[in-house]
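Assemble and predict.
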Amino acid sequence: MRIGWIGCGTHAAEMLLPALTRLPVTLAAVCDTDASRLAEAARRFGAAASFADAEAMFEAARLDAVGMAVGPAAHEALARRALARGLAVFVEKPPAATARGAERIAEAAARGGRPCIIGFMKRYSTANRIAANILRDPGFGPAVSLIGEYMTAPTYFERDPDYDGFFLHHCVHAMDLVPWLMGERVASVAARGFTIAPGKLALHAGFGFASGALATVVMGTHQSRGTPMEFWQVMGDHRRVEVRNVLSVRYYRAPAFKVDDPAATLDPVSDTLLWEPNLTVAANEDHKGYHALLAAFLAAARGEASDAPTIDEGVAALRVLEAMRRSLASGRTETVQA
Ligand SMILES: NC(=O)c1ccc[n+]([C@@H]2O[C@H](COP(=O)([O-])OP(=O)(O)OC[C@H]3O[C@@H](n4cnc5c(N)ncnc54)[C@H](O)[C@@H]3O)[C@@H](O)[C@H]2O)c1
């Protein structure tokens, strides 16, 4: 498969292109408006051709698929142009600056009959996958509630205290992961924020579901990225699964007290199960999930069965995000556009 790549910035160069080039693809071309980033990406990842303009790349490079990590404002136009040319498309999150923009990409994907896959890689992190598979197992029963924490640092947001970047680049992950873990779309959002100083925002968001299930996620820009940033816990009836910073998964069930049992041991049916990766093995796991997500994108591009997150799920996440922003402004619970 001949792939073209648009946007050779920090994220593409450090995360996506290293994961992509481990897969069986030909990196036929790279594209960036910044000449030095373009040259560096072509050198590092062995691209056969380089372009400063995406349209010129589509025209000349005989591509089967294209990936992009540019930014929300540019993604919509670039994805729509690629889909119109019949290319399978991978777009980093967020796929557009608004839910309406993402809908227009979905319309282009439906018209062209080609997949448009979104970079919600948290679904593919090994730890999150383990948790999701536990939750999907009928033995877990219905998910009742979720508590999450997904923090970042003020680095980017001190310059941009309107928090657009924080919402679109950071919070959007939670807008996808919460319904994915709960197995149900978000119906409403009630959010409250506390601005500690310009660029430092603490945000508590409550998510409602048609089933009656509940979720609360704390997000914010007031923690150091040198500390653990992520925690997810989903409770069912007498069981819960926790993912700590994608580094460990704990599955708590309903064990008996041990104190009166001299023969107490660890019961595989009821005691706590713990998974932790072996970090001494170089590439044995996919902690962040980029490699598995890109493999799922390639499967979708080949027309094979794939569980890769689609543009429709990108639209859904941006609708939840917009409901959260409306709630922050109104102080009320806001319904998510169906
Ligand atoms: N999945 C994740 O966790 C994750 C993490 C980081 C970034 N991202 C996403 O990746 C995207 C890029 O982020 P980044 O930090 O790499 O940004 P960046 O600014 O470092 O990179 C963007 C690149 O796109 C290039 N560019 C801009 N307009 C262009 C155009 N019209 N044609 C070709 N190239 C163009 C820029 O020159 C730059 O090199 C964002 O949407 C961001 O949200 C996702």
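The first helix runs from residue 10 to 20.
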